[in-house]
Amino acid sequence: MENNRIVDFSKTSLHDIYGENCFNDAIMRELLPKAVYKELKEVQQGNKELTLETANAVASAMKTWAVSKGATHFTHWFQPLNDLTAEKHDSFIAPTEDGKVILEFSGKELIKGESDASSFPSGGLRATFEARGYTAWDTTSPAFLMSDNTGVTLNIPTAFFSYTGESLDKKGPLLKSMNALDKSAVRLLRAIGNKTVKKVSASVGPEQEYFLVDRKYYDTRSDLVLCKRTLYGSMPGKGQELNSHYYGNIQLKVADFMRELNCELWRMGIPAKTQHNEVAPNQFEIAPIYSTVNVATDQNQLTMLILRKVAKRHGLAVLLNEKPFEGVNGSGKHNNWSLTTDDGTNLMDPGDDPKSNTQFLLFLCAFIKACDKYAGLLRFSASNAGNDYRLGGSEAPPAVISVYLGSELEEILEKLSKHEDITSAKVGKIQFGVNSLPTVLKDSTDRNRTSPMAFTGNKFEFRMVGSSASIAKPNTVINTIMAAVLDEFAAELEKSKKKSDTILKLVTDTYKAHKRVIFNGNGYSDEWKQEAERRGLPNITNNVDAIAEILKPEAIEVFEKMKVLTRQELEARYNIYLQVYSRQIKMEATVMLQMARKDIVPATLKYVHDVASTVNEVKESGVKCPLSREEEMIASIMDSVDKFMQTCLVLERELKNAHELTEPFEKACAYRDKVFATMKVLRSYGDALERVVGKTYWPFATYEDLLFNI
Ligand code: ADP
Ligand code: MG
After folding, report:
1. From the CA of 477, how far away is ligand 1's center (Å)?
2. 3-class DSSP state for residue 239?
3. What is the distance in A from the centroid of ligand 2 to the CA of 274?
């Protein structure tokens, strides 16, 4: 429970608390009968179906463990399509005839949950007469305990789907994409002669950026409380120009917060590893050690929950929104992705053995092709309303998908494709082996922080993903498109008589056909925008257009072929994401209007009133002094207030117009082009007022309070 929050590590060993709230492999091995444990492992590997008998045994052990740690309730924990997590709690109690209770938790309850859940977006997949949704236990992600001030709940990670089996969440497709990737990668490995690897899975380490603000300032602003980003706000004299915050000393209050955060995460078995100050003032980052993608996804969702919870205890509020402040950097979630085999090889690692190097170049080229061919889907996978304000700004990756390889790798591929002698390639250390394919040093890449998809030595870092988003969506897309290309490569190789020639041909042909997506230069520069256009790379600047990508024929084809999402599920998702966008903008616009009328206008008028009264009093006193500047100031403020209020009327009208539209795409476009465009104008008047109205009159905390005070 909430007590013992602060652990004194001079007295308690980290070993003793690590994973104590997680029903992890070690606990299962200890508590489950040997045969049941073995059976469950097989199920986790995807080799066997779960039997009710095994489920009963696991449920019983889980209950005993959870109850011994104070749990009274359990919940199926799932991830609907809104980037949040959802839960419906049930207690373990079962009444007995003599008026008492026993605590029960059956295999059935573990495996499957049923909830009305009709308020979750289904995009038309559930008719109202069949509103039920089902949750199914994900055996591959460990159950965990969540505590509040007064009790403990056992959380079981689950997938959420409809009566007819369509996915209604982010986990279902992610698990399917993992399956597809596993199959295709193993197929390709077999085709190039690997007989030992049985399973391939994506490994992911998400770096989570966030802002912290003092809760007393946060609470003064309805935009932060309701929309999680500021809708008004004028930058003070100091921004992030001095870069004094980046990697700076972590101040005491934040250090205390981070320490408790780490403890909570470690107790959950989340391997929190790195933390530091980020570029913007009061911006920070936390990154765990990477794990299998669905575990990493669940752990990242939990990390976001725990960030919020711990911040609150420290009198802070955490902002996970992509662009909480205008004028300083936004927050992302760098998604580090690689491929791991069951024998521990990272297929994205160049390594130093020529054979595995051939393999590496093949997987590398598959990745390049996937990024080029399905750039629109990748862009979709990293888009939400919040990220629209971040991407393409001066600090975040541009909205164009490109891949950074580093000059060494590019040179190797370039020379290979021209059948040139690669011994002259300026690679740090190369060994020449089979088919003149070199061995590349692991650290063969420089750091390029401006690329949306950067090769960083043994993994790809997808930097476009927004800080508030679930990483399920981007990884589902990366897994799926990669699986599709690996499958194509495997098919080629299976037909081939001379494998080494075919590999070389695949590498060089793929590189030649898709090298337009490779860009090693400065992604923030204007030249790149023009160059990208010249190369014909798509530049999808906003969420609404990105959503449209999922109904393009090649998108439907790849998702259906890889058995990740059906056309019907994609259509539902298209509707849901458009609806989420429209609702988000609608909410923001409504809150802006409310703040304008209830806070900004009254505060400004009060200020004007006080200034005007002072002017009058001075006049009446008969003292001779110039008052023209004060009068000009009053006139100028009143002019701004008038424009501000007028824009409120325009925004109200645009909101009404957008609201009346029914076709989801048209509606989302209206919110983007009309409502949002007007919000920008309204904000500019509001911010201008903030700059002239007296500080003590301003009705909510300013950027100075939020960004420079904790
Ligand atoms: P950066 O220098 O990019 O800020 P960090 O140390 O903050 O690096 O984060 C790097 C992330 O990448 C960590 O979560 C780390 O576990 C993860 N990572 C490292 N190697 C791999 C890999 N092979 N596959 C996936 N993720 C990885
Ligand atoms: Mg980092």
Report:
1. 20
2. coil
3. 7
Amino acid making up residue 585: I
Tokens standing for residue 69: 């740690």
Q: Is the CB of 332 under 6 A from ligand 1?
A: no
Helix (H, G, I), strand (E, B) or coil at 101: strand
Cβ within 8 Å of residue 609, ≥6 positions away: none
**Listed residue (503, 536, 489, 504) closest to 517, CA to CA:** 536
Which residues crowd ion ligand 2, with CB under 5 Å?
207
CB 481, CB 180: distance < 8 Å: no
Long-range contact list for 272-276, CB < 8 A, 24+ apart? Answer: 272/303, 274/207, 275/250, 276/247, 276/250
**Closest atom, ligand 1, to C-alpha of 276:** 7
Domain 14-168: give its CATH architecture.
Answer: Roll (3.10)
Structure tokens at 279: 């570029």
CATH architecture, domain 179-565: 2-Layer Sandwich (3.30)
DSSP 486: H
| Separation of CA 469 from chain center | 3
- Chunked into runs of 10 residues, the chain (710 residues) has average pLDDT values of 71 94 96 96 92 96 97 95 87 95 94 79 67 89 93 96 88 97 98 95 98 97 97 86 72 93 97 93 96 97 97 97 94 97 94 70 96 98 93 80 90 86 55 45 59 94 96 98 98 94 94 96 88 95 97 98 97 96 97 98 98 95 92 96 98 98 97 97 97 97 93
Q: Which helix (H) or strand (E) holds 65?
A: helix 52-68
Helix (H, G, I), strand (E, B) or coil at 654: helix
Amino acid at 436: S
Residue type, position 348, single letter? M
Closest ligand to the CA of 288? 1
Is-same-fold flag (179-565; 581-708)?
A: no
- CATH 1.20.120.1560 for domain 581-708: yes
Ligand 2 centroid to 207 CA: how many Å?
6
The domain segmentation of the chain, as residue ranges, is 14-168, 179-565, 581-708
Closest protein CA for atom 13 of ligand 1? 205
pTM here is 0.95
The finding on whether 459 has its CB within 6 A of some atom of ligand 1 is yes
* Contact (CB, 8 A) for 450 and 397: yes
Find the 548 Cα to ligand 1 centroid distance in Å.
31
Cβ atoms within 10 Å of 355's Cβ, excluding its own: 15
